[in-house]
Amino acid sequence: MKTIVVDHPLAAARLTTIRDVRTDNATFRAALRELSLLLIYEATRHIETVDVQIMTPVAKTTGTALANPPLLVPVLRAGLGMAEASMALLPESQMGFVGLARDEETLLPRAYMESLPEDLKGRPVFVLDPMLATGGSLEHACGMLTSRGADQITVLCVLAAPEGLKKLEESGLPLTIITASIDERLNESGYIVPGLGDAGDRQFGAV
Ligand code: URA
Fold first, then answer.
1. Which residues, other chains included, contact 151 with Cβ-Cβ below 8 Å and sequence gap of 6+?
2. Exposed end of the chain (fewer CB within 10 Å): N or C?
3. Which residues contact 107 (CB under 8 A, 6 or more apart)?
4. How much of the chain exceeds pLDDT 70, in percent?
5. pLDDT class of 207 with cuts at 50, 70, 90
6. Does the CB atom of residue 184 touch ligand 1 within 6 A?
7. Which of 161, 148, 203, 204 is nearest to 36 (CA)?
8. Structural domain total, the chain
9. Domain limits for position 129
10. Cβ–Cβ under 8 Å, residues 29 and 168
11. Which helix (H) or strand (E) holds 179?
12. Is the beta carbon of 191 within 6 A of some atom in ligand 1?
C-alpha cells in the first residue's frame, strides 16, 4: 500500500480551518471543498492520458485527454463534502455511492446503500471519505469495490490515524492512500486526535 501525504501550504491552511472548533458548518464545508481539490489534484498526478489531435484557432496541435477517468465514490454521509470538488476537477468521471452504517448488534459496518457499476475491473476508483479512523468502514467499502473486480483503488481522506493505515495495510487490498495529515492516534471513543471532531456533524450539523 502506498501512502501520500499532501504537503502544501494551501492544504495546511485549509486543514487548520477545518480543525478549528470555532469554524461554523458553512465555512467548514467551503474549506473541505478546497482541500478536496488539492487531494484530487495529487491523486490524479499520474493517471493515464492519451494524445488527441486538435486545431487551435491558429494551427493543428497535439493535446491530452484522460484515457480512463476514475469512478468517484463518496462514502455517505461525510464523503458528500468531497463529491462536488471531485466532479469539478474530473467532469469526465462518473459517480457511484456507498452508504455505511454501524450494525448495532455486531458493531460491524453494514452497507445500506450500494450504487456501483457491476464490473470495476481495470477501472480506477477514487473513494472519498474525509476520515480514516479505525479503517473498519473504509476496509468494508473497498472490499465492496474489489468484489466487483476493482484493482486500482485510491482512498482520498483529509485525516488518517496510524491505526487505520495499519488496518488497511494489513487488509492486502490494492490501495493508494492520499491524505492531508497522518494524525497522532485514536482516542477511546474512536475519534482521531487532534483530528477535527465528527466530519459529518461539522459539515451538516449534529442531527
Ligand atoms: N469519524 C469522524 O468523523 N471523526 C473522527 O475523528 C473519527 C471518525
1. 120, 121, 122, 174
2. C
3. none
4. 100
5. confident
6. no
7. 203
8. 1
9. 2-204
10. no
11. strand 175-182
12. yes
Report yes or no for ipTM above 0.95. Answer: yes
Residue 97: C-alpha distances to residues 74, 78, 100, 140 (Å): 6, 12, 10, 13
Nearest of 179, 195, 199 to residue 42 by alpha carbon: 179
Q: What percent of the chain lies above the pLDDT cut of 90?
A: 96
The backbone torsions φ and ψ at residue 160, rounded to the nearest 5 degrees and listed phi first, read: -130, 140
CATH number, position 133: 3.40.50.2020
pLDDT per position as a tens digit, 22-49: 999 999 999 999 999 999 999 999 999 9
The predicted structure's pLDDT at residue 102: 85
Distance in Å from the first CA to the final CA of the chain:
36
Cell of 137: 468502514
C-alpha cell at 33: 471543498
Q: pLDDT tens digit string along 99-124?
A: 999 888 888 999 999 999 999 999 99
Residue nearest to atom 3 of ligand 1 (CA): 198
CA–CA distance, 110 with 44 (Å, rounded to integer): 30
Q: How far is the CA of 192 from the centre of ligand 1 (A)?
A: 6
Cα distance between residue 15 and residue 25, in whole Å: 14
Which residue owns the Cα nearest ligand 1 atom 7? 191
Q: Using one digit for the tens of pLDDT, what is the confidence trace for 143-176? A: 999 999 999 999 999 999 999 999 999 999 999 9
